[in-house]
């Protein structure tokens, strides 16, 4: 398994949710779920690994993906089993996001 990397985890979560990296100006990259959204969030402030509210968005879309793509045993059940513990849930989501089966998935 690939070693956990917080910045990469946040990036993978944002991309999995269909967020796009927008450019406020030449020197500052920002994440946004819509190119024209006024509530852009700085990339370094993404909080999927630390905030349950953020992580739940990813969990929800991952579970929907698993139900639609027949990966219940491989990903769905490990995620639902891990949910009581945030660190375990982050680890299982990390494993899912690093699998190749959902590449270029957007919610």
Characterize the structure shown.
The protein has 107 residues and is α+β, with helices and mostly antiparallel strands. The chain has helices at 6-16, 52-68, 72-82, 86-97; strands spanning 20-25, 28-32, 41-42. The chain has a domain at 6-17 and 48-97. It is built from four helices and three strands; from the N terminus they run H-E-E-E-H-H-H. A three-stranded antiparallel sheet has the order 1-2-3, with no helix packed on it.
Q: What fraction of residues sit in β-strands?
A: 5-15%
Mean pLDDT: 80
Distance between the termini: 25 Å
Assign an overall shape: globular
Assign a percent range to the helix content. 40-55%
Give start-end ranges of low-pLDDT stretches: none
Give the SSE order as H and E letters.
Answer: HEEEHHH
The main sheet comes to: 3 strands, antiparallel
Class by helix and strand content? alpha+beta
Count all strands and give the number: 3
* Major beta sheet, strand line-up: 1-2-3
Radius of gyration: 14 Å
What is the tally of helical segments? 4
């Amino acid at each position: 398994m690939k070693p956990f990397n917080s910045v990469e985890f946040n990036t993978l979560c944002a991309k999995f949710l269909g967020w796009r990296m927008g450019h406020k100006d030449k020197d500052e990259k920002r994440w946004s779920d819509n190119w024209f959204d006024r509530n852009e969030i700085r990339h370094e402030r993404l909080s999927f690994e630390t905030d349950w509210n953020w992580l739940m968005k990813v969990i929800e879309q991952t579970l929907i993906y698993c139900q639609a793509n027949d990966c219940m045993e491989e990903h769905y059940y490990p995620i639902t089993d891990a949910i009581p513990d945030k660190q375990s849930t982050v680890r299982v989501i990390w494993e899912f996001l690093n699998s190749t089966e959902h590449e270029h998935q957007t919610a």
